[in-house]
Specification:
Helix content: under 10%
Shape: globular
Largest sheet: 4 strands, antiparallel
Number of helices: 1
Strand content: over 45%
C-alpha cells in the first residue's frame, strides 16, 4: 500500500537510559515461530552497558508517524567486561555476524563474543513468563589490545581486530575464539632527534583485503597506509 510519509526528517527511535552517550551500535533480524519479523538493535555506551532493543517490523508507518518516544523496547542489559575497579569500559565497537553472533570491543582492549538467541516467541507481550531475546557470552578475550578496540572486520571465518597503539592486526577463529596470529602493519613513525627522538606507534583503523591477489592495505590513525602481500 502507498503511504503519504517520508524519512526526510529524523525520527527518534529510543533514548538511552540516564542519557548515557552511545558509542557503538549493531543490528540484526529475528523471526517468531509464525514468521513475524523483528528488528534487534544492540547498543554499547560510555558506562560499559550492552543493551538489546526490539521492534516489530510490520509497522513502518507507525515508526515514522507515532508520537511514542520509545519506538524500540529495551529488552536486556549486559556488561562489556568482567574487569572491576578500573573505570569505565566504554563499548567502542559492536557488530553482528552470521547466525546472530555479536562481537563487542571496549576501550580497555577487551573483545567479547556473544550469541543472540530467544527463549520463545518475541511476538508475545513482554511481562510475566513471556519469552525474550537474550545474549549468551561465548568467549571473553581480556586485554588483547593495549588500548581501545578500533577495528573489527570479518574475513570468512576469521575475525580481524586492532586497537591500542601497537600497529597490529590480530586474527581470531570465530568458531572457537582462539587466536590465529597477528600482523604488524605499522611499525611506528620515527621522531627526528632534534624533536626528541623515539617512535610514535598508532592503531590500524581500517583496511581492505583483496582475496584475488592476496593483498592487504591498512590505514593507520596517523594517516599512513601500508600495502602488504599475504603469504600462505
Amino acid at each position: 500500500p502507498t503511504h503519504n510519509f517520508s524519512l526526510e526528517d529524523s525520527v527518534l527511535a529510543f533514548s538511552n537510559y540516564y542519557n548515557c552517550p552511545i558509542f557503538s551500535m549493531a543490528s540484526t533480524i529475528i523471526r517468531s515461530q509464525e514468521g513475524k519479523q523483528f528488528s534487534v538493535l544492540c547498543t554499547g555506551d560510555r558506562d560499559g552497558n550492552i543493551r538489546i532493543w526490539l521492534k516489530a517490523d510490520n509497522d513502518l508507518k507507525g515508526l515514522c508517524t507515532s508520537t511514542t518516544v520509545q519506538k524500540f523496547r529495551h529488552i536486556q542489559l549486559y556488561k562489556s567486561s568482567t574487569h572491576r575497579g578500573t573505570g569505565y569500559h566504554l563499548v567502542t565497537r559492536a557488530m553482528f555476524l552470521r547466525d546472530n553472533l555479536l562481537i563487542t570491543g571496549t576501550n580497555n582492549g577487551d573483545i567479547r563474543f556473544w550469541k543472540l538467541g530467544q527463549t520463545g516467541d518475541p511476538s508475545r507481550p513482554i511481562g510475566g513468563r513471556d519469552p525474550l531475546p537474550n545474549l549468551t557470552l561465548r568467549y571473553d578475550l581480556i586485554g588483547i589490545h593495549n588500548g581501545a578496540v578500533e577495528l573489527l572486520m570479518i574475513v570468512g571465518d576469521i575475525l580481524l581486530s586492532s586497537g591500542g597503539n601497537d600497529g597490529k592486526i590480530v586474527g581470531w577463529d570465530i568458531s572457537t575464539g582462539l587466536r590465529l596470529g597477528s600482523v604488524r602493519c605499522h611499525p611506528g613513525r620515527q621522531i627526528p632527534e632534534e624533536e626528541g627522538g623515539g617512535t610514535i606507534s598508532s592503531c590500524v583503523v581500517d583496511m581492505l583485503i583483496s582475496g584475488k591477489d592476496g593483498r592487504l592495505i591498512s590505514l593507520c590513525r596517523d594517516g599512513s597506509l601500508r600495502h602488504l602481500k599475504l603469504m600462505r
